[in-house]
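[Q] Does anyone have a clean structure-token version of this?
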Amino acid sequence: MLSALPVTAVAQTSSAQQTSNATASQDNRPVNVIYIMADDLGIGDLGCYGQKKIKTPTIDSLARAGVIFTNHYSGSTVSAPSRASLMTGRHTGHSPIRGNMGIKGSDGSEYDAPLPDSMVTLGEMFRSKGYVTACIGKWGLGGPESEGAPLRQGFDRFFGFLSQLNAHHHYPQFLWDDSVKVMLGGKKYAQDLFIENALHFVEDNKERPFFLMFTPTIPHAGLEVPSLGEYDGAFGDTPYKGGWYASVEQPRAAYAAMVTRLDSDIERLCRLLRKEGIADRTIIIFTSDNGCHIEGGNDPDFFNSSSGFRGRKRDLYEGGVRTPFVVSWPGVVEAGSVCDHVSAFWDFMPTMAELIGADIPAGCDGISYLPSLRGGEQKKHGYIYFEFHEEGGKRSITKDGWKLIELNAKGKSKHRYELYNLASDPMERHDMSVSRPDKVKQLIPILEQARTEHADWRF
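[A] Here you go.
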């Protein structure tokens, strides 16, 4: 269980909601699926996970109406491999994309390593069962002419950033509308365009089963937002003078305003679902692609963005890879429930395959958590594995409550292991690698066996 989690934050729903849920359970039409993934949002940045300074009433409401997972892991500790893990159902020991890698496109812009054609993606899986599919927001898995472009990976509709590099600016020079490059000249706030396109997609497809990947770029740095709203002057800010990211007069206020702005946009989406009469047959999932960031003047310690866990983005400590995970499914998920099942991004594909009756692609590392959502008997992971190729290379294996982290995996002189017992020390304060060499020796072979070699991702 997440020690900092305020269980009172997920109290029972109202009688009106319960009545609606009961009605929904009798509806046999295919369910719609909306998967919302924030960018660099920490597990502690939401009210339902203990946040006190930033307001997230809509996401908290989804938690009250559904379930929050306390042991859910992202696909990686940075963006591209995390998204690849989600999209393919493979952890970073088997995924074709295990790190952020820039590739120059024909238009002179830098894009990201493309998903290969050979991989079966979520878009292709949903489309095979008659769903209309869209990704709106950030893609980061291949440029416009590559095999990894979203329209070549099972998505009927795309709007947003193809490139992670361009997504560092919330007032971008251009965005992609399907395969058309739309020039904006830095005059439009990207999030405003994202939510408008998401709303249009739902309106256009309300009579059909749909799968919407809504992947906003907030609250990733730079800390840019049209209005600070109620946070203006609230946090005693020190200006951030910029560099790679834009200068910000009130970085704490800007970060909080970005999170609350995302929350209010999700409320717009929920209102539309209710207006069109499809809320009761739509699953809404909310998460983040990795742990909180410390870039562009952001101050995660001030907000307790990691909810007390050690580490943040680019770490394999819990704060870098443990992520919020809220599921609202009217009539199925028990309202106000908390689930401590250990799950990860690579579990979403088999979960959805079981839900819609699709085949699970070969090589999938995931385990369906549909039983946890429905209150059934849940299969468990044998282990959770991560690898990361920056900062000297890192790997980790978590098994039976023990976590082994390998640091400087690409070097020799500074190479070392750290060992933690997450059951007794979830904040990873006490390295036990010296006192428990037997456990280190036991976990190293599992760490080695959890990955396959890849030409682009070597240790």
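[Q] Thanks! Anything notable?
[A] The chain has eleven helices and 18 strands.
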